[in-house]
Task: inverse folding
């Protein structure tokens, strides 16, 4: 077991972990933060996307013990004082999901996308969101939601 | 995944010592390939050395006018670095053509060079694979081999190297700086990756006790006339069937120097000096480019499901050289191939 300190959504956690534990499994199985979803567990679907020091990553493909002192933001950490994050609101406004399983990853990924500031056109949004798969095919509405949040941010 | 001991290296010498002390040890940096392979039991290290704290995260100019990229520079930091975007846009374009933004935010420069093949038989531990288990046979020869090599393959292995970044690095003529127990050395890019031969388990000529510390780019970046053209089964987030990195130096319509490297076709990024020799002094037109493509593909060999790649590669070479000559490089967001 390896000791590690992680700050998740502003709360510090001192943990003792099997080094094999992925960040995703630690969030879900140790900290009961089940908003981040496990899809493929191989870095192919994007359902487990969260923000590591502000950058979007696949939490299934990284060992939690590698992130001593890191600031981690999950879908649970986006709303502030009961007010939804603009991207959460935009996903509701545009009906940008059907089953919802990919949605936490889509929203965290879109938060990272807007922070990066590289996407302007719909083509660029689609390309830079290609790491998030939606099996319900809600892509047109997801792009519309991101465009709305980009305009307002 | 089997159990392993987790250790953190604090400097390059420490990392080399930790690796050399245990033949079953592996470095982890971005982890985007290694951890996936560990989950599948393809990689089974009993010691994992975390090298993410090493001071190898800088991109800086070299005295000779080139660029030195630290081995731990993340893919996105590389692609978005102003000096890379301005002077080596073919490299920025190739990086952005690969994987997804989440993966590029983690994946390191050194790790990109060392990523393993995406051959499905390599990943499937119940199937024979000479790369995973030397001597067990190759399931791809006679199996599903749509993604596999058409150049430089052997009877032991027809896997391809999956990187996009490395195709651009091969075209640019990068150098790989490494450090091992016996000191530092520099490997020219063409000599870094290997052909499978009868030892497909070895992807590169990096020593067992060596670590990549940096990738160095020469001054010439071909920023005016370049392209990275990637053709794949999906429009994004898929490995190349064929990709082509091009750099041209033109004098009017005449080619002064021309370089091109291919991805998705061999066990290493494929660059052929004989094919490039067909370019200098010639007019930059489709006939010239087709002659160069024919030279590069002279020994191409297809298998049951990938023979289409030979024609595809020929057309991609002509198209990519044309894009570069016109100064209209392939966009990685708009998928139209002009």
Result:
């Amino acid at each position: 077991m390896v000791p590690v300190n992680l700050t998740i959504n502003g709360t510090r956690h001192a943990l003792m972990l099997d080094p094999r534990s992925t960040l995703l499994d630690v969030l879900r199985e140790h900290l009961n933060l089940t908003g981040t979803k496990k899809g493929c567990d191989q870095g192919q679907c994007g359902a487990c996307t969260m923000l590591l020091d502000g950058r979007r990553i696949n939490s299934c493909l990284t060992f939690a013990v590698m992130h001593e002192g890191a600031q981690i933001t999950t879908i649970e950490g986006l709303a502030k004082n009961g007010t939804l994050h603009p991207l959460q609101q935009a996903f509701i406004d545009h009906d940008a999901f059907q089953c919802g399983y990919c949605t936490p990853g889509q929203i965290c990924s879109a938060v990272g996308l807007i922070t990066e500031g590289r996407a302007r056109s719909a083509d660029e949004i689609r390309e830079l969101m290609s790491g998030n798969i939606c099996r319900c095919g809600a892509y047109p509405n997801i792009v519309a939601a991101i465009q709305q949040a980009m305009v307002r941010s | 995944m089997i159990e392993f001991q987790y250790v953190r290296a604090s400097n390059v010498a420490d990392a080399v010592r930790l690796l050399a002390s245990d033949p079953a040890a592996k470095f982890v940096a971005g982890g985007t390939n290694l951890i996936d392979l560990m989950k599948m039991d393809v990689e089974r290290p009993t010691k994992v050395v975390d090298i993410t704290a090493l001071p190898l995260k800088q991109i800086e100019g070299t005295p000779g006018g080139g660029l030195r990229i630290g081995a731990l520079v993340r893919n996105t930091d590389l692609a978005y670095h102003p000096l890379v975007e301005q002077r080596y846009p073919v490299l920025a374009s190739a990086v952005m053509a690969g994987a997804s933004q989440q993966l590029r935010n983690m994946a390191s420069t050194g790790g990109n060079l060392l990523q393993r093949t995406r051959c499905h038989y390599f990943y499937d531990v119940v199937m024979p694979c000479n790369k995973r288990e030397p001597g067990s046979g190759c399931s791809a020869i006679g199996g599903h081999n749509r993604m596999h090599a058409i150049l430089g393959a052997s009877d032991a292995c027809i896997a391809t190297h999956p990187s996009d970044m490395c195709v651009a690095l091969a075209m640019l003529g990068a150098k790989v700086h490494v450090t091992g127990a016996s000191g530092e050395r520099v490997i020219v890019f063409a000599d870094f990756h290997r052909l499978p031969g009868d030892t497909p388990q070895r992807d590169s000529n990096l020593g067992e006790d060596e670590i990549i510390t940096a990738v160095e780019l020469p001054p010439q970046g071909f920023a005016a006339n370049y392209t990275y053209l990637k053709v794949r089964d999906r429009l994004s987030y898929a490995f190349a069937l064929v990709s082509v990195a091009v750099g041209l130096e033109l004098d009017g319509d005449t080619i002064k120097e021309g370089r091109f490297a291919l991805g998705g076709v061999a066990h290493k990024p494929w660059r052929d000096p004989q094919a490039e020799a067909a370019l200098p002094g010639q007019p930059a037109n489709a006939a010239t480019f087709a002659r160069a493509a024919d030279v590069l593909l002279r020994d191409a060999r297809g298998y049951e499901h990938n023979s289409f790649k030979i024609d595809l590669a020929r057309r991609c070479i002509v198209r990519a050289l044309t894009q570069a000559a016109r100064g209209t490089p392939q966009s990685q967001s708009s998928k139209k191939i002009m």
Observations:
- The mean pLDDT of chain B is 98.
- The domain at 5-53 of chain B is CATH 3.30.43.10 (Uridine Diphospho-n-acetylenolpyruvylglucosamine Reductase; domain 2).
